[in-house]
Specification:
Layout (H helix, E strand, L loop, with lengths): L1 H59 L4 H26 L1
Length: 91
């Protein structure tokens, strides 16, 4: 009978630990989700600010067609690399 009581107490202890771990896991997942939302907002803000800076920079300088074409090629390359990375992440 003592063995059953000992087994029962160990089982209760394990169940309590499991419930605590589940609660902690749920809390951590909620924290991660919140942080991901903040990161997405910040990324959008950075993109917006970056686009604004490009517009300001382009508006304040005289760029010849060759430089514009070079920048377009660079941007196309960067966008292509980002697409590759996103495709890899989606797989």
């Amino acid at each position: 009978m003592e063995a059953l009581d000992l087994l029962n107490s160990k089982l209760d202890m394990l169940l309590k630990k499991y419930a605590a771990l589940q609660a902690d896991n749920a809390r951590l997942r909620a924290t991660i989700e919140g942080q991901n939302k903040v990161i997405q907002k910040l990324n959008k803000k950075v993109t917006s600010l970056d686009n604004g800076m490009v517009s300001v920079h382009l508006g304040n300088t005289n760029i010849n067609e060759e430089e514009k074409e070079h920048m377009r090629r660079q941007l196309d390359g960067v966008i292509s690399e980002i697409d590759k990375i996103l495709n890899t992440l989606n797989d």
